Amino acid sequence: MHHLWRLPRTISLANRPAAGLWRWLLDPASLTQRLQAVCNEFRVEVIRSSWARPTLDELRTLNLRLGQRALIREVHLLCDGKPWVFARTVIPRETLAGKYRRLTRLGNRSLGAVLFADTTMHRAEVHVARLTPTHKLYSCATRSLTSQPRHLWGRRSLFYLRERPLLLSEIFLHDMRSCSPPI
Predict the structure, then answer these.
(1) Positive or negative CA dihedral for 79, 82, 85, 90?
(2) What does the alpha-carbon distance between residue 171 and residue 153 come to, in Å, rounded to a whole number?
(3) Which residue of 83, 112, 158, 159 sits 20 to 30 Å from the alpha carbon of 124, by its own alpha carbon?
């Protein structure tokens, strides 16, 4: 089976997006901080935050049992009032123990700000994907867009807080070529 999410080094030059977007996909820094640097006004808009069943792929990635529920948070990262990124976070119940219970109450605060401020945080390798309309994440990401692009690029990573995982997928809705991430 062809796996949707792939390590960047396995994607040929001919199959990559424009260089500007590729740099955003591979940027190891906090996406929130990068967007704040290029936007006049940055805001997080919560689409949903509730206990639900992750997709089969998300369950496998997080080593969760079939049917297990997790906290799923979907947001738009808005730059000057426009959605530039759709982000979906899947947080297993076990990850939300102790001080990490606060992740259930982020509201319109950025998850990235919490993750990158945590000294125990480490991030696994980034995987990237070209999403088409047949993919569930594409449907979620484009629900509020006025026009549907032929495809979208996204990245996802497992983050670990005190060795407890969460899965963050970030789907780029904006043509990022005009605004390279600051170095």
Answers:
(1) positive
(2) 6
(3) 83
Q: Is the dihedral of CA 58, 62, 65, 70 positive or negative?
A: negative
The one-letter amino acid at 74: E
Record the pTM: 0.92
Give residue-wise pLDDT tens across range 41-96.
Answer: 999 999 999 999 999 999 999 999 999 999 999 999 999 999 999 999 999 999 99
pLDDT in tens, 103-149: 999 999 999 988 999 999 999 999 999 999 988 889 889 888 888 88
Residues 90 and 166: beta-carbon distance below 8 Å: yes
